[in-house]
Amino acid sequence: MPPSTLGALRREVEAGRVPRRTVHQELRENLIRKLRAGEPVFPGIIGYDDTVVPQVVNAILSQHNFILLGLRGQAKTRLLRGLADLLDEALPVVPGCEINDDPLAPLCAACRTRVVEEGDAMPVAWRPRAARYVEKLATPDVTIADILGDIDPVKAARGGLHLSDELTMHYGLLPRANRGVFAINELPDLAGKIQVGLFNILQEGDVQIKGYPVRLPLDVVMAFSANPEDYTARGKIITPLKDRIGSEIRTHYPLTRAHALAITTQEAWVEHRAAGPAPAPPVVVPPYVREVVEEVAFQARQDAKIDKRSGVSQRLPITALENVVSNAERRALLAREDVAVPRITDVHAAMPSITGKLELEYEGELKGATVVAGDLIRAAVGNVFTGYQDAGDLRPVVEWFDLGGTLQLDDQTPAGEVVAETRGIGGLHEAARAIARTAGGDGSVPALAAAIDFVLEALYAQRKISRSEEGRYQATETPRRPSRPEPMADPTSGGGPGRKKLYN
Prior knowledge:
The protein is of the alpha/beta class.
C-alpha cells in the first residue's frame, strides 16, 4: 500500500522506496527501463521506428522540451499522448492542491501552511499518470489567463485578502500541469503575447502571474506540435520561443505501402462489424482493395493538382476503407449475400470520404474534386495491378471489347450477376481466379466477382478499355488494332455500339 500520510511518505523516501526526482528525470529513467527491457516505447505508432521515434527518444534522454513539426494526420498528437506512458503509475501530492504540490516541498502558500499545521499526520493523495498529462489545443482566442492564471477577486473578497496576496490566484492550465506533462497542439495558432508568456517556464522553470511578485518554480515537461507551413499561414512561432525549445522533430507520412496498410488496419472500423444485436454479413476485404485505398493517398501526395502544403492525411485511407466496406455491406444486404466482399467499384462509391480531404490547387479546382479523386483512383488501380502479374494474358479480354462487346456493371450489381454476365468474355474468369488465389481468396462467388471487377478496372486504368459514367465497360474511343480483322463500321452509326461519355 502506498503511504497515506506525510510522515509515512517521508520514511519511504528516506528508505529509497519512493523516488524523488523531476519530471524530466522521471521520463528519462522510465524510458531507459523500457529500452533495456526491449519494450515498445510508443506502442501503436507505425512507420516511425527508424525516423521519428529515435529523435523523440534522444530528446527525452537529453531532458529536452521538444516540438513535433508535421502535416496533418501524421500522429503528432498520439505521440504526445504517449508521453504519459513514461510517467510513474502514481505520484504523491497534497490533497486538494490545484498545482499538485509535492507534500515534502510544497510551492503554494496554502500547502506550506497546511504542512506546518498538520505535520506528519497530513494526508497524502496519489495522482495517477493519466491525470498528469494536460493537453491544450491552441486557438487565437486563448488568453494568458487560460495558460498561466489570473487574480480571482472572489477569492480575495471571501477571504478578506489583498489582491496581491498569493492566495487570491486562480491558476491556469500550465500551473495545474505542475509535476506532469503539458502539451500544446498547433502552437503557431497561439497569439504572440501568449507565446512570450511561455519563456520563463522553458528557460528559468517558473511562471509569474499577473505581474505580482509570485514566482512558481514549476516542474513540468513541455511538448508542442505544429504544422511547419503555419509559420507563414495562420500564425508563426516567435523566434525567441523556438530558440528555447530543446529539440525540433519532423514527422512524415508512411514511407511504404506496408506501413500505411498497417496503420489503416489498426485504425479503421472494419474487423468488428458483424457483431451486435442486428449483425451484418461478415466482411472479407481482398488485399488488392486495401492496397488501392492506400495507393490513392500516395498518388494524392505527389499529384500536382493537390496542395502539398496542406498534405493528405492518413485519415483519407482510413475513412475511405470504412466507406468501401459499408458500400459492400449495403450490396450484400440487398442481394441477400452471405458475405460482403468489397470491390474496386466500391472505392469509387467511397468518393465522399476522399474529396473532403483534398485541398486542391488552381488546376485541381478547375477540374473539380470528384474528377481529381477519380483520376487518383484510376492511377492507384493501375499501380497496384502491376503487382498481380500472375493474371495471365489479358489480350483476349481487350479484344472482346474491341470487337464491340459491352458490359454494364455498377457497385450494386450482385456477385452472382457479375460472374454470369462475364462468363462469355474469354480469359477474364481465368485471370480473375488467378488473382483471387494470389490474394488468398476462398474461391467463393463474391471473391471471384471482386477479382473480375479488379481486372476490368485495371484494364480501364491502363486505357485498354473505357468505362462510361453509367458503368458501361466498352472499347476505347480509339480502339487498339485487334489480332484479327475488325468489321467495317457503318459511317452513320456514330462510331460503334454503346458509345457513352467517358469519365476522363
